[in-house]
Write a structure and sequence with these properties.
By secondary structure, the chain is an alpha/beta fold. Helices cover 36% and strands 24% of the residues. It has nine helices and ten strands. A six-stranded mixed sheet has the order 6-7-8-3-9-10, with helices on both faces. The protein has a four-stranded antiparallel sheet with strand order 2-1-4-5, covered by helices on one side. The N and C termini lie far apart (39 Å). The chain binds adenosine-5'-diphosphate and magnesium ion. InterPro entries: AAA+_ATPase, ABC_ATPase_HisP-typ, ABC_transporter-like_ATP-bd, ABC_transporter-like_CS, MetN_ABC_transporter-like, P-loop_NTPase. It is a peripheral membrane protein. It comes from Streptomyces sannanensis.
Amino acid sequence: MSGVSVDKGTKDAVPADSLVVLSNVNKHFGALHVLQDVDLTIARGEVVVVIGPSGSGKSTLCRAINRLETIDSGVITIDGKPLPAEGRELARLRADVGMVFQSFNLFAHKTVLENVMLGQVKVRKTDKKAAEEKARTLLDRVGVLSQADKYPAQLSGGQQQRVAIARALAMDPKVILFDEPTSALDPEMINEVLEVMQQLARDGMTMVVVTHEMGFARSAANRVVFMADGKIVEEATPDQFFSNPRSDRAKDFLSKIL
Ligand code: ADP
Ligand code: MG
């Protein structure tokens, strides 16, 4: 399989095969050109952090990869398969792409345990007993097993987001997209979520993470992708990007957040 070479810094070797490929992707909202000729390849096992100013198209990029948004032109493939427009094949491919949102998006009227079981039973057709066992294992892994029988509203934001990560993992996704997963959290809860994400990264999960947490980017990312005005302006290792950004847009952005 053809692949990209990944400069991994001090991290373990990343296999150089492409899992998610965006080729010449364009997306408009009316007159607004929100994704402009976006080319991006994510290798299996790679952790890509996407940063950029508000409105630059980061969420739209994530949503397009999961086909929560259609695109106007270009091609997106997951593990070599183009994203179909609809139907059962789309549901299957979408299940390969986990998504963790800023606002948790748990089912409010289901318990924590049910939240992590539901997709397994409905989409993956796993039997209930196996789904429950797996849900408990994953809830334990993210440190919220003791909350299994509660409803989302009874949990803190940090706990809810860890449940959302467990729910994504329950589908055995090939890649997980995180769209500002800590932006809605109180400061004291940010680290407990980032630590779970760090562990996933160490375990070799392929991850696309939109975040303003530069500490996470520095320690977990293989690559930083900087977006502005719907374009990928710069791609670099975290070290290169933070110590020596090439574009004026990136320099300007970093001067405001660091
Ligand atoms: P980011 O996540 O980088 O802040 P978004 O991808 O959310 O950026 O948005 C990119 C641009 O597209 C913004 O100008 C936003 O207002 C616009 N946009 C996003 N979603 C929609 C939509 N459903 N309809 C119209 N405009 C949208
Ligand atoms: Mg966004």
